[in-house]
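sanity check both lines:
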Amino acid sequence: MSDTLFDLPTQPALLTAERAVRTVDGPVDRPVARIILDTPFSWPDKLYDYLVPEELDSRAKPGVRVRVQFGAKRLTGFLRERADTTDAKTLKPLLAVVGEPVVTPELFDLVDRVAERNVCSRHDVLRGAVPPRHARAEKAVSGLPGVMFADVADPGVLPFGIALDGRETLVSAGRDTWSAIAASVQGALSRGDCALIVVPTGVEVARCRQALSQRLPGEPLAIIEAGSSPEIRYRHFLSVYRGRARVVIGTRAAAFAPIDAGLLIVVDEHNGAMRDKRSPYLWADEVVRMRKGQRTFLRFSFPPRLGTADVPTVVGGSWPSVTRAEQWEGDQRGLLPPAAFATIRSGLEKGPVIVSAPRAGYVPALACAHCHTRAACRQCGSAIAVPTAGSHAACGTCGDADWRCACGSRNLRAVSRGSSRIAQEIAAAFPDVGVDTLRSGAEESSMPLVVATPGAEPDREFAAAVIVDAGARLASLSLDAEIEAVGRWARVASRVSGHVLLTGGVPPHLAHALASRSLDVGGLREERELLGQPPYHRWFLISGQKTDLQRLLGGVAARLEGEAPPEQSIAALLSGGGRQVFARGIHLVGPTVDDTGITVYLHEEAPAVRLAGVLRDTLQDLGQLAIRIEADPIL
């Protein structure tokens, strides 16, 4: 079937008739309520006009939740503003006002900017920014008496030369991160400012809360984290909105907290937990940076996310020494070299020791001993593994143990060892020392020797650490593989007071970067800029079915009339491959095809305001398409 309908990238967009604007008279002042509706579809992203009944006039304030009739359904939304004009022919009345206002004008403005930058709808942003209403929490906060904050003494000179001067600063503080944050918050409060602190997980929330409580006893702290119950989360959110707390600590969603903070802090910005896995796919530090203005912004992160701007950096606090050692080759890969046993032995003389294993399990990956082909189940394609000591190799999904390689061999060799196998080896080498294995950040251990997978490291101080197969992460195809690897090592090193040993294929320059907390990204920046990669270009992943993708790209090309090459059709672009010129300054990469549809990338030099605007305007005109757009995807 011909795709000629979509072979006209320079076809002008259809003209839309202007709707007449009329003034609405009613018994109340500004009777038109403009609502951001939480609809089941993303586009068009618009304000819907409704009539404010006289009985709801006093409660229908900007920022409040409302319930309305939308077609045959009843939906909720947020009242953005009230007006006395509308372009709608008829107006339905508001059905109800739900609760009290919870969205500030600053938050509405932030939501607008996020939606425009990330090509998403405003209700998608609000859904993650404002927790669901909880009536009991609302009633509890409403019944509380007013709060009087105590005066806070000036802490004097802040650690590492940190200055609350309205600038953005990168801080590499090691094990002293939390004490430095507490001192910085004290400095902000002594000046009459509030503070917002965003961290990756509940573990960091607890550590930050403890440090602040010790330094500022009696100071009310609002905790906004996804792990809290709906009631607790909403109660703390309302407390912040009502000004009952001047310090907010939380995970990713706390970046939208309704607080006018003079001090903004982000911890471990490169942690995967700091990015939303759903639309609008936000990095928490980007949201906080959009709120900065003249506020002080401290980034306690090493290594930081790669950016185009040079940011002042301060380094201080305790940090362990770092060395590297090679592991055994062949079947011994993943086991501990002699230097690891020496590090563990010397570390145990001073305190507990942690061993970081790259994967959980016993032997999670096997290969053919003859041809070295990775062993996969012939029934379902999953990996063949040895789950526990003494068990036989079998599929980890369907349990099938009848494996034979295509070369005819049935013999297997270990490709990597899991945390259980490494713990077994350590226990054999140190029979008089207790060894524990952790696989989750929620687990704790008081044993002198702990084997933990990434992210499961307990919240305690260790005398030494061994990171097994540290170079495994470098085999990733991700653009940020080196930065991510150093970040994983740094999370272990931040818990160590003495020595860290990196084993297995770690380049000297990365070991030096960890030791000095100074990752030289100069060459990486030059390469990214030359190749049009992030952060110098903003990329947008666009996926969907071919028909919808053609409509979207055709609409985008029509809006870029005179810039999109007329000789290149949309169908030709989608049948090509590699990197192609889509318009002046805009390139298309792809497509790739899988079971879910077609995926392409569009990218433009940062900040890519034109490309984001054209994508958003096109989606507004075309309405609901089976299209997913992810801004700044992980490449």
User: Anything to note?
Assistant: The CA atoms of residues 172 and 302 lie 6 Å apart. DSSP finds 15 helices and 29 strands in the chain.
